[in-house]
Amino acid sequence: MQFKLARAGVKTFAGVKTFAGVIMSAAVLGGMSANAFAERLIKVATEPTFPPFEFVNTQTGEVSGFEMDLVRAVGKELGAKIEFQVLSFDAIIPAMLSGTVEMGAAGFSITEERKKRVLYSDTFYTSGLSLVTTKAKASAVKSMKDLEGKTIGVQIGTTSHNAAKKVKGAKIVTFNTAGEAILDLSIDGSDAVINDRPVTAYIMTQQPKLGAQLVHQPETYSADDFAFVFRKDQSALKDEVNAALAKLKSNGEYDKIYNKWFGKN
Fold it and tell me: From which residue to which does any coiled coil extend (predicted)?
């Protein structure tokens, strides 16, 4: 696929505004360092080569994306400043285990093998393959079974390509990018495109005129659950992050972030 998928307990002082001056005075008189009242910092490792989850905004130079916005929102809930550290994907867990960073956020899918080394947060996104077709064909193309004997567009050499090969009697049309496959679909070059669900949703959201012509079918195939990762000894931080995620989902902030990147797709 075009982008690879599947990919601490410090008390804060937020809200103690009324007595801030008194506390600081006491700290100075008692010989305490002002650094004792410094903002909490959480170092988060990422690999920003996985849009729309994490990528470098070429205009600002900052890491951006759905997962990055979600991490920032979690930090806000915890009263903490988030400091992103860019690493290669395979260096993130070693950096976390060594104590260089406290958390990993880079499209980590939940696997039994990885569970032996790290703790996972609650799932924040379920990914996988999905079908997108035109509105005219949506009633006839709802599942992989419906693609038998039809023309399927895919990005060459991807898991989507492999999935298409398993469809009986299908004609497969390949493209260098998923975006090219979807554009071809919009002019009836194929009956449907198989692609990674979040990438398809992102393309449809970023190109609303194109998205308006299409239907992103709801079923997800080969599902992967995404979560943040932590060291085994950081269960307290994991619990804090889970509580923050739950609050973001209950107060509607998660939906705002989701819709920014994926729309209703």
Answer: none
DSSP 3: S
pLDDT band of residue 152 (cuts 50, 70, 90) is: very high
pTM over 0.85: no
User: What residue ranges do the domains of the chain occupy?
Assistant: 41-126+225-262, 129-222
What kind of fold does domain 41-126+225-262 have according to CATH?
Answer: D-Maltodextrin-Binding Protein; domain 2 (3.40.190)
Residues 129-222, CATH architecture: 3-Layer(aba) Sandwich (3.40)
Amino acid at 57: N
Q: In what order do the strands lie in the sheet with 54-56?
A: 49-50, 54-56, 63-64
Cβ neighbour number for residue 165 with a 10 Å cutoff: 11
Q: What whole-number distance in Å separates Cα of residue 139 and Cα of residue 100? A: 52
